[in-house]
Specification:
Helix content is 31%, strand content 24%. The chain has 456 residues and is of the alpha+beta class. The protein has two domains: 94-203, 2-Layer Sandwich (Uridine Diphospho-n-acetylenolpyruvylglucosamine Reductase, domain 3); 205-416, 3-Layer(aba) Sandwich (Vanillyl-alcohol Oxidase, Chain A, domain 3). The strands form five sheets. It has an eight-stranded antiparallel beta sheet with strand order 17-14-16-15-19-20-18-21. The protein has a five-stranded antiparallel beta sheet with strand order 7-8-12-10-11. A four-stranded mixed beta sheet has the order 1-4-6-5, covered by helices on one side. Strand 10 (157-163) and strand 11 (169-173) form a beta hairpin. 47% of the residues are buried.
């Protein structure tokens, strides 16, 4: 039989090098929000820089793409690949300490940091309300907390170690390749594989927390003032109600008096009500959407006033086990009230039944090229849907409001933007692309998401 009769020869399969970062056949991967999935050809779990380098070299030499991932907590497909999936979870813990500068392995989870920093008398300057992400994943997607005097976690980065597409181990800090830090500190996973991250920490501190239900109209009217006057201010507006739940946190010295919530009270509020009961509410709303407005009004009534003082990480972080999907935009700070009012009107006009609140936070301006807060004080508006609901129409219409108010999408949360529109939204966009061309000219670290948002 001729070669033509036999058909085309099968595609040659890559031959693994001896133990390149514990390479093994891939399996289906899903992110936490169940909004994305992929089936990589290979997976690896390196434990050292050398093993990361071996995995990068193997991918490049065999024409595969490589994506590092940590907790899979991004709602976009930023960590998905059909090539080699690199799980950095084994590269973790404190690598070095130099005064307030602490270097962590890239796979260290944010929830591990308080215990690692406490013996050093240190803490992160700010945190978001979810701490399941790895430090590398958090900075690469622009994870942030709230507080107009504080930037996102990536703004606390003072150095990294990066394995480039060429297999080079690149140190980037104030004295080595400093011009790359504004791109690499928030790099979308497009520039290489982070193996460690050096963060500037602060002395341990407490937070005095005051949580109150208030009229949403009043909170929106006072947004600018309260953002300026409060160390960390955020609020949640519940659809189908006229109420906002506010959270105002004031920083106190580490030796201030600690007055935490009683153990039962915290367990009941944060585990039973915020997770178990809310999960049942979301499931009920999915089956019978008409009951959602009444349930939301009941939730607001049951949300009690709380005031307490505790260590910063305990106050910043909320344990969330109800699975959801999210879209978030960073807006000019002063645009937030009008944008939230427009979302409220949209929900009412469309007759949608939305069980999750609208979340509003703030952050300081920064100089990271792809930061949502690049060169402007920023307010964040986030919308969510339960993971068993289709968020497409709601998110699409809310996104139009965000764009009309000058919004920039959070890289780890769902959006529909492409490079053409993002180039105009992010002043540092073209400078970032130049760094990408320098560090990954062959697009070893590319995937469909990066091609969508970076355009090549």
């Amino acid at each position: 039989m001729s070669a033509a009769a036999r058909g085309p020869s099968p595609k040659p399969q890559p031959t693994p090098e001896p133990n390149p970062a514990t390479l093994r056949p891939g399996a289906v991967w899903r992110n936490w929000g169940r909004s994305e999935r992929s089936h990589p050809e290979f997976v690896a779990r390196p434990t050292s820089v050398d093993e990361v380098t071996a995995a990068v070299n193997f991918s490049r030499d065999n024409g595969l793409t490589l994506k590092a991932w940590g907790a899979g907590h991004s709602f976009t497909s930023i960590a998905a690949t059909e090539g080699l999936h690199l799980d950095v979870g084994a590269i973790n813990g404190v690598r070095s300490v130099d005064g307030s500068l602490v270097t962590f392995g890239a796979g260290t989870a944010l929830h591990q940091l308080p215990a690692l920093l406490e013996p050093l008398g240190l803490a992160l300057a700010n945190m978001g309300d979810i701490d399941r992400q790895t430090i590398a994943g958090a900075i690469s997607t622009g994870t942030h907390g709230t507080g107009l005097g504080f930037g996102g976690i990536a703004t606390q980065v003072r150095g990294v170690t990066l394995v480039t597409a060429a297999g080079a181990v690149l140190r980037i800090n104030a004295t080595e390749n400093p011009e790359l830090l504004p791109a690499v500190a928030l790099g979308l996973g497009a520039l290489g594989v982070l193996v460690d991250v050096t963060v500037e920490c602060v002395p341990t501190f407490l937070l005095h927390a005051v949580e109150r239900p208030e009229p949403a109209a009043t909170v929106l009217a006072e947004w600018m003032q309260r953002s300026v006057e409060t160390d960390h201010f955020e609020f949640f507006v519940w659809p189908h109600t006229s109420t906002a739940l506010t959270k105002s946190n004031t920083r106190l010295p580490g030796d201030a008096r600690c007055e935490p919530l009683p153990r039962f009270s915290r367990w009941f509020d944060d585990n039973v009500m915020a997770n178990s009961v809310f999960r049942a509410i979301c499931a009920t709303g999915t089956a019978a959407p008409a009951v959602i407005p009444a349930i939301n009004r009941l939730v607001v009534k049951l949300s009690g006033n709380r005031e307490f003082t505790d260590i910063s990480s305990t106050v910043f972080v909320t344990d969330r086990t109800v699975r959801f999907r999210e879209m978030e935009y960073g807006l000019p700070l002063e645009a937030v009230p009008d944008a939230v009012r427009a979302i409220q009107t949209l929900i009412a006009d469309r007759g949608w039944k939305v069980s999750f609140p609208i979340e509003v936070r703030s952050a300081a301006a920064d100089s990271l090229l792809l930061s949502t807060a690049f060169e402007r004080a920023t307010g964040y508006v986030a919308v969510h849907r339960y993971w068993r609901e289709d968020p497409a129409e709601y998110f699409r219409e809310v996104e139009a409001i965000m764009i009309a108010h000058g919004g920039r999408p959070h890289w780890g949360k769902l959006h529909n933007r492409h490079a053409e529109s993002l180039a105009g939204a992010y002043p540092g966009f073209n400078e970032f692309l130049a760094v990408r061309d320098r560090l990954d000219p062959g697009r070893v670290f590319a995937n469909d998401y990066l091609r969508q948002v970076l355009g090549q």
